[in-house]
Amino acid sequence: MTSFPQLRHRRLRGSENIRRLVRENKVSLDDLIYPVFVTFGQGVRREVASMPGIYNLSIDTLLEEASKVAEAGIPGILVFGIPEEKDEVGSGAYARDGIVQQAVRALKQKFPELLVITDVCLCEYTSHGHCGLIVGNTVDNDSSLELIAETALSHAEAGADMVAPSDMMDGRVAAIRQKLDQAGFTNIPIMSYSAKYASAYYGPFREAAGSTPQFGDRKTYQMDPANGDEALRETRQDLEEGADLVIVKPALAYMDIIGRVKDEFSCPVVAYNVSGEYAMVKAAAKMGWVDEQKVVLETLVGFKRAGADIIITYHAMDVARWLKEG
Question: The domain 26-246: what is its CATH number?
């Protein structure tokens, strides 16, 4: 077996051009999806305090943002809705004139080539802040499925290119696939939040979307951070039910799960670089403790190395700029 001094690994690190030639993983624009938050109103551009650079946008300002996204060359956006009113059954999620439905129609009319993906869940729309219907003191799985599927259908009818169920109810991928197929939307892909953990990294998102549970927590339907094998069981079920892409969320503390899912299923795997991960980098960079650009790009290439094919990240617009600048 060849060893030192004949074998010198540093030979392939001697210059930037050599490093470029042997580099195994790279982050490109083709990897990125940019999450956006849309709300009712006119001229709304309200920064999320815990997520500097991220805004709650009305449809008119969302169109301005989408123009920048398209110009930057980012392939797609993931749309989250913030309703005017909430109720026990999350009716704003599946209303044909709901905020996401209106936003999708406006986006596809103005930017037909931009990939518009919609988050499918009830949590932003329910008065209790949970992702499904409440029966007694429990988030009821089966009675929630019809409304989740109806939400996905309303998004497809509005023109969404892809739907992304994030509720973590058992059987929701099958319910959505059946609902879409029956309505003639057989070509709409499902990007399922398959391994979604009950994580402490979601805090800033809940401020942005106003989706903090009003009682209890989401540990009865989101996954225990201690579990890995369970993620494979969840992912297998979603793929068997018709998921076309699968998400691991969060990404940073779960790169092992990204790798295991990719190795096990060889399907398109999406890493969700969540709000808490974004906020920590922004806060540390503001204090001068880290180089924001270097930390972000290193983190994203880590997701790629772990096995991610696609990265949902709030850093997307910054990354697009950095890549353009070389």
Answer: 3.20.20.70
